[in-house]
From TrEMBL:
Pfam families on file: Peripla_BP_6
Matching PROSITE patterns: TAT (PS51318)
SUPFAM superfamilies for this protein: Periplasmic binding protein-like I
Keywords carried by this UniProt record: Signal
Keyword presence, rRNA-binding: no
Gene3D superfamilies the UniProt entry points to: 3.40.50.2300
Alphabetical list of InterPro entries matching this protein: BCAA_transport, Leu-bd, Peripla_BP_I, TAT_signal
Homology family: Belongs to the leucine-binding protein family.
Protein name: Amino acid/amide ABC transporter substrate-binding protein, HAAT family
Ranges for domain Leucine-binding protein: 52-387
Species, as recorded: Micromonospora echinofusca
Length: 407
């Protein structure tokens, strides 16, 4: 496939990151285990936990992504608190203050403000929708609380000068767009249409896909925006199908992604469909969606297809345990990226390395973290707060109702 031209450079970069991550983790005596047998490390008294505020879409339009991240958080919290997190000379429990923002940015902002001022959280995470994440961004900057976003949209961490306390767990739009464009070019498709979500996530997708397709020598037949979640997608689907493209890129998060593909099929389009990582959730292939998406492609972190990390890494062992617990609790594991789990672990690592729960020190150590999580490789730097490494992305297709890795 056309990915081979970049495979070697991406592998080399990821290998370098992995080596660096290994050095960092070893210097800290192991992820989540530093000081485990240190007699000077004592259990913190009550009220001295590592406190993290969480704002998720547990109901409303973003629930397809929010609920699965809550499930991931519960599993990771249990694992961390089995021994606690050694921070300085205390071993602290991790406590999550979880709020349901119901997909409402104004509510998310009020909740985050209360968590920062009244509850005194040491960090914030959440916002699987770009709009709720942007509301949380404003609070994080004003209150100077480190915030790890679970949403898609490059504007969450840009411009960097206005996002100094903000980090994004999901892949950058440019990295996903380039993988999709190379895949499209490798299939010798000459004209594709773009059907993009309303809002920041869709804005990032349109901008990134225009540039990536141009570089790949593929013409963009049309770029049509979907209405907000819950709207009627038929008009946008008919307009897209009417351009008679060779392929269609649907750039939207679940549940809009599957709904958009369904509208395209009903509008008479029967060609290939390409999805960004935000499309993938447990809901995406449930019920009749599986038949609608059969043969569709998605670019997604390599956790999707059940691909395990190197068996010798601590991340591989953690992910095996995570999958086991998820299946045990919820009856199955669909391979979604556990961004929230990685976010909690990154915050815990930053607190441990900084030997403090001070917000400013946690932020300082977050922006120098290089580590391999369960979803993929993260490499935050002072000039890059979108940490998912492009080498962590794979190409998948829906085959017999399940995600199968292509490259």
């Amino acid at each position: 496939m056309a990915t081979s031209a970049t495979g070697s450079s991406a592998f080399t970069r990821r290998g370098l990151l992995a080596a660096t991550a290994g050095t960092l983790l070893l210097s800290a005596c192991g992820r989540g285990e530093a000081g485990a047998d240190d007699p000077a490390t004592t259990v913190a008294p009550g009220g001295q936990e590592l406190l993290i505020g969480v704002s998720l879409e547990l109901t409303g339009p973003g629930a397809a992504l929010g609920v699965i991240q809550q499930r991931a958080l519960e599993i990771t919290l249990e694992s961390l608190n089995a021994k606690g997190v050694p921070i300085g000379n205390l071993r602290r429990a991790v406590r999550l203050e979880v709020r349901d923002n119901a997909g409402d940015p104004a509510l998310a902002a009020r909740q985050a403000t209360a968590l920062a001022r009244d509850t005194g959280v040491h960090a914030l995470l959440g916002g699987t929708m770009a709009e709720t994440s942007m509301a949380l961004v404003q609070v994080a900057q004003k209150e100077r609380v480190p915030f790890l976003s679970l949403a898609f949209g490059d504007g969450i961490v840009l411009p960097l000068a206005q996002r100094t306390y903000v980090y994004k767990m999901t892949p950058d739009a440019g990295d996903m767009a380039r993988r999709l464009a190379r895949l499209i070019a490798s299939q010798r498709l000459s004209r594709v249409a773009l059907l993009a979500a309303d809002g920041l996530h869709g804005d990032s997708g349109v901008r990134a896909m225009r540039g990536a397709l141009r570089t790949a020598g593929v013409a963009l037949a049309s770029a049509t925006r979907l209405p907000r979640t819950g709207g009627d997608f038929r008009r946008a689907a008919r307009a897209t199908a009417g351009t008679r493209p060779d392929g269609v890129v649907v750039w939207a998060t679940a549940p809009d992604s599957a709904a958009a593909v369904g509208a395209l099929r009903r509008a008479g389009y029967d060609g290939p469909v390409f999805l960004d990582a935000g499309a993938v959730a447990e809901q995406t292939l449930e019920g009749g969606n599986a038949a609608l998406l059969e043969g569709a492609y998605a670019v997604h972190p390599t956790s999707l297809g059940g691909a395990m990390l190197a068996n010798t890494t601590m991340s591989a062992l953690e992910r095996k345990e995570f999958v086991y617990r998820y299946v045990q609790l919820h009856g199955g594991f669909s391979g979604f990226a556990p961004y929230a789990s990685d976010a909690v672990q990154l915050i815990a690592d930053a607190a441990r390395l900084s030997t403090s729960v001070d917000r400013g020190r946690i932020r300082a150590f977050l922006q120098n973290q290089v580590t391999e999580g369960m979803a993929g490789m993260y490499s935050f730097t002072p000039i890059r707060h979108g940490g998912m490494d492009q080498g962590s992305l794979g190409v998948y297709t829906v085959s017999a109702g399940a995600w199968t890795r292509v490259s």
